[in-house]
Amino acid sequence: MDELPPHPFLTLKRFWSGSGIGTNKEMVENLQSYGVVRSKKVSEVMESVDRAFFVPDGVPPYVDTPLPIGYNATISAPHMHATCLQLLEKHLQPGMRALDVGSGTGYLTACFALMVGPEGRAVGVEHIPELVASSIKNIEKSAAAPLLKKGSLSVHVGDGRQGWAECAPYDAIHVGAAAAEIPPALIDQLKPGGRMVIPVGNIFQDLKVVDKDTDGSINIHDETSVRYVPLTSREAQLGDN
Ligand SMILES: C[S@@+](CC[C@H](N)C(=O)[O-])C[C@H]1O[C@@H](n2cnc3c(N)ncnc32)[C@H](O)[C@@H]1O
C-alpha cells in the first residue's frame, strides 16, 4: 500500500490503475470487490462523500493512487482511506469523538463526521493554512457540509503532533502522515477503549494500530507496510518548495 510515488526499493500495492472508473459508487464497489471495504457502514460513508470534491480540478478522482495536492502533500489513495475507516469503524459510532491529524483535503475528516453524526465530534488538524482553507471548501461541497455548519465538524491550523487538546479525549485518532515515533500527546488524548491508526517509520513504514485498554494500558500491532509523507514541521515539509 502506498502514499508516495514509486520508490525503487518498494513494490507498490494498487488495486486498479487508469481512469476507467467514472463514478464514486464504482470506486467503492471496486474496493468492496477487492475486500478492502468490508462493512456496510464504510461503504455507505464512502459512497456519500464523493472523492471528486476533494481532488484537484482536472485530475481523474477515482484512480487508486495518492494524488498531489500541493505543499508537498497528497490526498491518500482510496484503498488507504478505506483501510483506515475499516480499522477505526468500531470507534466511529454515533456520538463518538474523532481526531484526524494531517487532515489534508479533509476527506477522512468528512467521513469521520458523518459516521459519528451530529451528536459526535470530528476534528481535523493540518499545519498548512492553505490546505485547511481548501479542505473547508471541499467539505462545503460534500455530504458533510451540514455538520461543518452545525459545528460538530471543524478543521484547524496546528501542529498535529500536539493533537487537539480542546476536544480530547478521542475514541478514534487517525494520523495521515508518517511519524518517526508515536507522539506522546496523541497517546494522552486517546480515550481508554479508543484506537489510533498511525503510520510510523522513515523510508520503511508500518501502519500501526494503537489500542488503549479501559485500564489505560497500550497495545500496538502492525497492520501493513505503507509509504506516507512525513509528520514533520511546516518548514521541513515546505523546504524543497
Ligand atoms: C498524506 S497527506 C493528507 C492525508 C489526508 N488524509 C488526505 O487524504 O487528504 C498528509 C498531511 O499531513 C500534513 N502534515 C504533515 N505534518 C504535519 C503536522 N506536524 N501537523 C499537521 N499536519 C501535518 C501534511 O501537510 C499533509 O496535508
Automatic annotation (TrEMBL):
GO molecular function: protein-L-isoaspartate (D-aspartate) O-methyltransferase activity
Encoding gene per record: LOC111484770
GO biological process: methylation; protein repair
GO CC terms, sorted: cytoplasm
Catalytic activity: [protein]-L-isoaspartate + S-adenosyl-L-methionine = [protein]-L-isoaspartate alpha-methyl ester + S-adenosyl-L-homocysteine
PROSITE patterns: PCMT (PS01279)
Protein name in the entry: Protein-L-isoaspartate O-methyltransferase
Family (UniProt): Belongs to the methyltransferase superfamily. L-isoaspartyl/D-aspartyl protein methyltransferase family.
EC number: 2.1.1.77
Keywords, in A-Z order: Methyltransferase, S-adenosyl-L-methionine, Transferase
Pfam families per the UniProt record, alphabetical: PCMT (PF01135)
Enzyme class per UniProt: transferase
